[in-house]
Amino acid sequence: MGAFDNMKDKIGDLAEEHQDKVHGAVDEHGEKIGGGIDSAGDFVDDKTGGRFAEHVDTGQERGKDAIDNLDGQDDDIP
Ligand SMILES: [Ca+2]
How far apart are CA 54 and CA 74, in angstroms? Predict the structure, then answer.
């Protein structure tokens, strides 16, 4: 879905600029970041009456994987 791909690109750009900080933050706050992504998706579901729930779920998983994998290991976000 376009919006999530866009978000992923932006996250990627930001991450490149602040690599060390981002890696540390994801290591330390992975669960919180994952929770934030879940909340954002739930917000979209709420506003759209769940019509895009399937896309939202996929976007949530992709977003979490992308952020978690910034340090090369899929280990921080459940
Ligand atoms: Ca990780």
Answer: 22
- Using alpha carbons only, what angle is made at residue 39 by residues 17 and 15, rounded to the nearest 5 degrees? 5
Q: Which residues contact 3 (CB under 8 A, 6 or more apart)?
A: 59
- Average pLDDT score over residue span 63-70: 91
**Helices then strands (H, E): number in the chain?**
3, 0
* Distance (Å) from CA 34 to ligand 1 centroid: 12
Question: Using one digit for the tens of pLDDT, what is the confidence trace for 13-47?
Answer: 877 788 788 788 888 899 999 999 999 999 999 99
Q: 44 CA distance to ligand 1 centroid (A)?
A: 26
Separation of alpha carbons 36 and 54, rounded Å:
18
